[in-house]
Each structure stands twice: as C-alpha cells, then as structure tokens.
Design a protein that fits this description.
The protein is of the alpha/beta class. It has 16 helices and eleven strands. The protein has two domains: about 260 residues, Crotonobetainyl-coa:carnitine coa-transferase, domain 1 (Rossmann fold); about 90 residues, 2-Layer Sandwich (formyl-coa transferase, domain 3). Helix 1 packs across helix 6 and helix 9 crosses helix 13. It is elongated and about 85 Å long.
Length: about 400
C-alpha cells in the first residue's frame, strides 16, 4: 500500500466483488476503510475458494486491511446504527445495497447533507444482476469459443465487477474532489450494465455490430491481427501474438519464414505488415507458423523470440506460474507474506508502481467484527458503557 490517501476514511456496506474491490483500491492507497456486515457474515462470507479451516479466501482477499464491524441489520436499531456509521467520518460511503433500501441516499443525506455515496448496481434500472448475467446480456460469450460450436462460453474472470471496482474508486475520488471545492455531496451510481455497454462502445464493437452485424467467432485467434496458440516439438503450448509490423517481422525471422511468407504475400496480393491482412488470411499463416513451431522445442523458440522482440508466452497453470514465473509472484514487490485469520500466504498490495514512493506491506484481513468496539468509539464517539449496551442488546458483535 501507499500513504497517498492517509487521513481519508471510507465506510463500506457491501458484498461480493465490485464494491469491496473499490474500497480495497482506496485502502491500498492509504485510506482507512471500515466495512460493516450482518451478524454472522454477509452473503459473501463463505464464498469459495475456501481455506482448510472453511474460511473464505475470497472474503479475505477482498477485505484485507479493512476494519470490520458486525451489526444486527435485521433490527431497526441496527439499521439506524449502520446509517450513522455510513454518514460519519469523512462522509464517504460505498455500497451495493439497493437504491431504495435503508441505505438509500436520501436517508443518509438527512443525517449529513454533504455525504457522498457510491452505489454499485447490476442493471442501471435497479434490476439485480451479476457479472455473468451482464456478460451474457451484452453478447460477449457468443463471440468467444470455437467457430463450429454455437454454445456460449463463459469467462472465469469477472471483468465487469473488477472494472466497476476500479471505476467506482475513481468516481468516488472525483466526487470528493468536487465536494472539497463546492461543499456539495451527491450519490454516484456505477452499474455493471452501463460499464459493459460503454466498454464495448469504447472498443468500437458497438459500431462494428451496427454496421457489419455480429462478430463471427474465431476460436483462439486474436481478432483483427495475428495471434493464437501453437504446439512446440516437446509438447508445450505457446501463445504467439504479432500486432505491430515489428512483432510480425521478428516472428518471421525467428521462425525462418521469410521466403514462405513473401511467397504467400505475392500469391494473395497483400502485405502482412498490415495487421488486418494477417487476420483475414490467418488460415494459411497459422499453418505456416504451426509447422515451424512444431519442429522446434520450446527452449529454442524462447531464445529466438526473446532475441527478436517477439510477443509470446507459455501456457501454464496458476500453480506452475507460482512456481516458475518469479516476475509475477516470488520476485514481485507487489506481493509480501502476510498472516491472515486462515493462515499465512503471499498477499498482493497495491499493484501500482510509484518509483518515488515506498510501497508498504499489505495488511491482513480482519476477523468478522474484529474492530466493532474500536470503530463505534472512535467513529461515533460512543463510550465503552454505550458500546456494552449495544452488545447486551444483540445489536453488535
């Protein structure tokens, strides 16, 4: 983490990925994040993957470094307490509770006029949704997969959730910056549906579909350029990509395909220095590259590719990457060993690299409700006697 946001306090009342990742980004830049959950944990408190003791590694990963409060949100008194906490401190609140819930913006603004609430939503109209259902709705799973199989292919990476978390952190800081200038609070809503649709618009995919129709599936081929998986002589599989002319020239030289590629260019009347031509004529190019790669072992190819600036990588499992790719994990300054409630393991801090700043080590995840008393006394100014009464009444834990 970095101390850039030291002194800022953000309250979170949420579950799953988008909103928790939003506040995690803020925490790893120095903000104090206070998360409240229902007694016994929210709907994400037992989400897979699980540690050997049954605790959620997912929950630990998204909530490391935060302060945890457990509230009885089934009772009106517990909900009122959550409202007070959401509006306290710096008045910065992140949630994925529905817009008309007890955490509605107007209820918080009644407690504090300049409160800023960042609300992560599924559909912009309030209809529930998750990353997988939004992805299905915008058509991405039908663009992915084998060209001869019409079945949709779901992606294991929750892209819209993660984008929503990052964009939400940006939107919250933008609102906070404006409040510092004008004194005005506001609610900001970040919907997965808007982010997915806008992202496809930014990438030109919406315009492409309106003018040309739905994009045809192309299997593992990189759309619009040259790139796919190839098998080596010793059974490894490599992802090889050539988008720029330099990358293509380097690949041709590394595989000694100059004469064959030139002959194919002459036959087709094209130049493969143009990336679109490589995609249009990918079938014969794939055959040339596949044959050349299949005759060489991976180590020989790696040496030739590195010498010529070819863009490539081995396919590997995450377990293999953990063991064999030190740039990602073992030698990365992003990771540090941290002991969490479930045990010790390498834990990522802020992924940003700021050369002039020292990256502080990531903080452990809390136990559910670990900071209840501390936060109630420091944030709301309650006395130990008042906190004790809340415990006795079953409102906090």
């Amino acid at each position: 983490m970095y101390p850039l946001l030291n002194g800022m306090t953000v309250v979170e009342g949420s579950a799953f990925i988008a909103a928790p990742s939003c506040t995690l980004h803020l925490q790893q830049m120095g903000a104090t994040v206070i998360r409240f959950d229902p007694l016994g944990g929210g709907p994400d408190s037992r989400r897979w993957p699980l540690a050997a003791d049954g605790s959620s590694l997912y929950w630990e990963g998204l909530n490391k470094g935060k302060k945890s409060i457990a509230l009885n949100l089934q009772r009106p008194e517990g909900r009122e307490l959550a409202q007070r906490i959401a509006a306290a401190g710096d008045g910065l609140f992140v949630t994925n509770f529905p817009e008309r819930s007890f955490l509605a913006y107007d209820r918080l603004a009644a407690l504090r006029a300049d409160v800023i609430c960042l609300r992560v939503m599924g559909w912009a109209d309030g209809t529930p949704a998750v990353d997988y259902t939004i992805n299905a709705a915008v058509g991405v799973p039908l663009m992915t997969g084998p060209a001869d199989d019409p079945a949709p292919v779901n992606h294991v990476l929750p892209a819209w959730d993660l984008i929503a978390g990052a964009y939400g952190a940006f939107a919250l800081l933008a609102a906070e910056r404006d409040r510092a200038r004008t004194g005005q609070g506001r609610e900001g809503r970040v919907a997965l549906s808007d982010l997915a649709a806008a992202s496809l618009g930014h990438l030109g995919t919406v315009a492409e579909t309106l003018t040309l129709g739905d994009r045809a599936r192309s299997g593992n081929d990189l759309f619009g350029a040259f790139g796919r998986d190839f098998a080596t002589a010793d059974g490894e599989r490599l992802m090889i990509v050539a988008i720029t002319p330099r990358q293509w020239s380097g690949l041709v030289e590394a595989l000694d395909l100059g004469a064959e590629a030139a002959a194919l260019e002459a036959q087709l009347g094209v130049s493969f220095l143009e990336e679109g031509a490589r995609f249009v004529h990918r079938a014969p190019l794939n055959a040339l590259v596949a044959t050349a790669v299949s005759r060489r072992p991976a180590a020989q190819l790696a040496s030739a590719f590195e010498a010529r600036g070819v863009c490539w990588s081995r396919y590997r499992s995450l377990a293999t990457a953990l063991a064999q790719e030190p740039r990602l994990f073992a030698e990365s300054s992003v990771f540090a060993p941290v002991r969490h409630p479930s045990g010790a393991y390498p834990t990522p801090g802020a992924p940003a690299r700021l050369p002039a700043d020292q990256r502080l080590e990531p903080q452990p995840a809390p136990r559910l409700g670990q900071h209840t008393d501390e936060v109630l006394m420091s944030l709301l100014g309650l006395s130990s006697t008042e906190v004790g009464r809340l415990h006795d009444a079953g409102l906090v834990a």
